[in-house]
Specification:
Oligomer: single chain
Largest sheet: 8 strands, parallel
Bound molecules: NADP nicotinamide-adenine-dinucleotide phosphate
Distance between the termini: 31 Å
Structural class: alpha/beta
CATH topology: TIM Barrel
CATH superfamily: NADP-dependent oxidoreductase domain
Radius of gyration: 18 Å
Strand order of the largest sheet: 3-4-5-6-7-8-9-10
CATH architecture: Alpha-Beta Barrel
Number of strands: 10
Number of helices: 13
Order of helices and strands: EEEHEHEHEHHEHEHHEHHHEHH
Strand content: 5-15%
CATH class: Alpha Beta
Length: 324
């Protein structure tokens, strides 16, 4: 597994990380044993970056990560998030401090590696006070770094110059190419890391769904397919399932021999140097195994990148719903 310097943190992290939403809730049933086995497979194959949040299964994801890491030697960078428990606010220093204490307790650490604002309202970020609070928490030693998970490029650009900001977590995949030209150069110039979520557009870019695919009742790909619970962009990257499945078929034609479509989709992301780590989610250890192997795959050709950019412009971007 190759690593990338995680900007100003002084740490290198695996370029393929692990998204741990699946270990909390909202993806059908993943048992505790399956969750622990997913974490174990990841670490055994070089993953040193986990992404979680206080709200994933109301603390279950964080608790399982702590259980897994207890007594192990591996140096895993654990990024968590706050800000959805009390969405859409108030975002006071007291509520944020309380949520940070809860994360420290569940994760069993004195200082959190990275706290990310969890897609909080744009206006709250614009006022800037939340970042003052985060800088204070850092000075107090409660957190080592802070960043923000955002929905849109406008939000990312708005907070890019916040002093001390370590990272932005964004949606970036073959269906969501906007960051390439609107964000990456600026983030690199500002020395802000990019954490990529939804690399597979909730599984669509593994090429395994059709318009007929059904999801469990407690799976967001069922109850949030049209954005009824939270931003529609967080499910299938904002595409309606039928259109997403159709577009995935189009992309399939570009997958070279020797890799699966899920691997191809992640390789496409890693080919962008602004990316610090890709936090692919997994509901089975075998998926983690396939995903970690992407780091060793060769870069895709310039021609493949050119053709996928052209397809994005001509056939994909117009179908994306939600904030981009
Ligand atoms: N607002 C936020 O900050 C926010 C929002 C969303 C996600 N996130 C974070 O980002 C992480 C990644 O995003 P995501 O999980 O939503 O989407 P994703 O990584 O694009 O999709 C994950 C799903 O893709 C499928 N998959 C993974 N590897 C596969 C493989 N090798 N072959 C076939 N299928 C594969 C699995 O689907 P099945 O389970 O159906 O097999 C898995 O559950 C999350 O876990 C979470 O940590 C943050």
């Amino acid at each position: 597994m190759k690593t990338r310097n995680f900007v100003n943190t002084g740490r290198a992290v695996s370029e393929i990380g692990l998204g741990c939403w699946q270990l909390g809730a909202d993806w059908g049933h993943v048992s505790d044993n399956e969750a622990l086995s997913i974490l174990e497979t990841a670490v055994d194959h070089g993953v040193t970056f986990f992404d979680t949040a206080d709200v994933y299964g109301a603390g279950r994801s964080e608790t399982l990560i702590a259980k897994f890491l207890r007594g192990r030697q591996e140096d895993v960078f654990v990024a968590t998030k706050i800000g959805r428990q009390n969405y859409p606010g108030p975002y006071t220093t007291d509520t944020m401090r309380q949520h940070i204490h809860d994360c420290r307790r569940r994760l069993g650490v004195d200082a959190l590696d990275l706290v990310q604002l969890h897609c909080i309202p744009k206006g709250v970020m614009a006022s800037g006070e939340v970042f003052d609070y985060l800088r204070t928490f850092k000075q107090e030693g409660l957190i080592k770094n802070f960043g923000a998970s955002v929905e849109s490029i406008d939000e990312a650009l708005m907070i890019l110059e916040q002093p001390g900001l370590t990272s932005l977590q964004i949606i970036f995949n073959i269906f969501r190419q906007k960051p390439i030209h609107s964000l990456f150069d600026k983030a690199m110039a500002q020395n802000v890391g990019i954490i990529v979520r939804l690399p597979l557009a909730s599984g669509l870019l593994a090429g395994k769904f059709t318009r007929e695919t059904k999801f469990a009742k407690d799976d967001h790909r069922n109850y949030n397919a049209d954005g009824n619970a939270f931003n529609v962009g967080e499910t299938f990257a904002g595409l309606p399932l039928a259109k997403g499945a159709e577009l995935a078929e189009l992309i399939k034609a570009f997958v070279p021999e020797g890799m699966t479509m899920a691997q191809f989709s992640q390789r496409w992301i890693l080919d962008h140097d602004a990316v610090s780590t890709v936090i692919t989610g997994a509901s089975q250890p075998s998926q983690v195994l396939a995903n970690t192997a992407v780091s060793e795959l060769p870069r895709l050709s310039k021609e493949t990148h050119r053709q996928l950019a052209a397809i994005y412009e001509s056939s994909i971007q117009e179908h994306i719903r939600g904030l981009v």
